[in-house]
Structure formats: structure tokens, C-alpha cells
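ok trying again, last paste got cut off:
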Amino acid sequence: MNKRQFTLYSKKVLEHFRHPKNYGKMEKPNGVGKVGNIVCGDVMYLYIKVSKKRNGKEYIKDIKFQTYGCLAAIASSSILTELVKGKTLEEAIKIDRSQIVKKLGGLPPIKMHCSVLASDALLEAIYDYLNKHKKPIPKFLNERHKQIEKEKKEIKKRYKKWTKLEEKLKEKE
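nice, full thing came through this time. structure:
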């Protein structure tokens, strides 16, 4: 990228892109969130380890991410890990895209979907944790999970159509 392209991004976005925090795969996570966007090609994996505080509340003890995507996607994932680490599950579940964007100092309108992917990855990781441990899942989280699953099915369906179309075009050549 040249310098003109970087002017679209805040210093905080560039900092998190160049030096992402909590990057990498986690060994034996309690919960995993995987989300993607077929339009832009971004894919995010978010891993969480949950522990209990002295008062019995569960909190995110550790969090890591692997993001395959653009500058904004990597920065959104990185800042999210900083926002969430040490928070109780109740606190973490409330973190949304607007908080991610604000903490990054803004994102270009065309890149706002990256903050949505990051917040969805977190929700999916929390959902995965609660589901695996047979704990109650808040109604809104269950509804968002269903929406994300529906989107994943649509993505797979579209991908299959595009793949078939591509194969037909190759056959004609």
C-alpha cells in the first residue's frame, strides 16, 4: 500500500494493523467464533478462555484471534481483544461494533463491516462457550447466532453457485 491509501485510516487503526495484539491460535480454547464475509473475503477466528473470578462471575481470561483479511479487519479484531480481555461474559457480550469503531478512532464507511465481523466473532465465541458447557444462552445471543448461521448457509449456497458458474466458463474456453 502506498501512503495515500493509509490516510483513510486513523493512527490507532494503523497501529493495530502493524502490531496486532493477541494475535494467534489458542491452545484448548473454551469457545471459538468463526465468521466471514464472502463479498470482501475476510475470515475471522476468535478464541476465548473463560475463568471464574472470586465472586463466581465468569470472565474472559484470555483471548486470541486469527484474521485473514484487510487492514481494517485485522485492526478491528486486535482492538476487540483489548476491549474484551478481563471482562465478565455479561460485559463482553455488550461490546458492539460502535465501541470497536470508536476505540479505533473511526473507520471509512466502506470498512464498517469489519467491525461487525469482529463483534459477531466475539458473540459466536461466547455462544460456543455457553453451548458447550450447557449454560443458559441469552435470547438476543441465540437470535444473533441463528442469524449468523443463516448468513453462513447463504454464503455457502452462493459460493457453490459461483463455483459452478466458473466451471462452466472454463469448459467453454
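cool. The longest strand covers residues 58-68. The chain has seven helices and three strands.
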